[in-house]
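Quick one before lunch.
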Amino acid sequence: MFTLPNLPYAYNSLEPHIDARTMEIHHSKHHNGYVNNLNNAVKGTEMEGKSLEDLLTHHMDVPAVRNNAGGHFNHSLFWTVMGANAGGLPEGELADAIQSAFGDFDAFKNAFAKAAGTRFGSGWAWLCVAKGGALSVCSTANQDNPTMPGVGCGNQPIMGLDVWEHAYYLKYQNRRPDYINAFFDVIDWAVVSKNYADNK
Ligand code: MN
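Model of the manganese (II) ion complex:
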């Protein structure tokens, strides 16, 4: 059985950048829905009891698993890379890796914002690390993510941004670029740095 993880902060912690009502609906309704639908999709099948990573890697041919295992994985990462009193700039080896891959932080931010802003319809933008430590930015459709084989967006995601309208519509309506910009004010770089160190 998969379970909805608690947020590591209160629903209103990311205000004014991301409003409490959006966070509450997004976590308690949307993410919870992916968890429930995933449990229902694997129940009574040979997939029951398999890990999320196993489902993401080997069972993408089942649409209900692809959508809901992806949704569960993606949101579980998304909540943790944001925090109260966050934002600012990365430090240490992650800052060095960003400089190596993109030139400087602004160039990285532009690349990430472009990936998020140009994803047509619903999907995600990702910062990924390859074995060896090289960073890259990409985006995926729907609830796909870079751990899935064949999505054309490789390696391990260490930060993700949800660009489905449900993630920003109440506060930003159609203004996805403003929401993407606001995300940079709530990124918890300490968490992203740990994800980098754990997966490089
Ligand atoms: Mn979402």
